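JOB MANIFEST
job_type = single_chain_structure
chain_count = 1
residues = 98
[input]
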Amino acid sequence: MARSEPKLLKALLPQALESIAGRSGSGALLAQVWREAVGETIARQTALRTVGRGVLVVSCESVAWAKELEGRREELLQRLNARLSDKLTRLEIAVGGR
C-alpha cells in the first residue's frame, strides 16, 4: 500500500472544524460563519484553532490583533451566536500559530 505525503495540521484543521460544525448541528461551516461574523479583514488575520464545549479558540499572529479581538470579544461572540444553532459560551484569543 502506497503512503500519502504527510500533511500539515494547518492544512487539515479547516476540514476537521467543518466536520465538527456539521456534527454539532450548526448547519453551517464554522470557518464560513467566522468569516461572515467578523468580516474579511479580521478573518485574514486570524485562524480557528479548536472548538468544543461551547468554547472557540482563535489565534492571530500579533499582540495588536489579539488586543483588538479581546476588546471586541462580546460583540464577536454575539455575532457568531446569531449565526449558530449550537451557541458558543466563550471566545478565547491566542497569539501565534496562525
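[summary]
The mean pLDDT is 82.
The CA atoms of residues 12 and 35 lie 18 Å apart.
exit_status = 0
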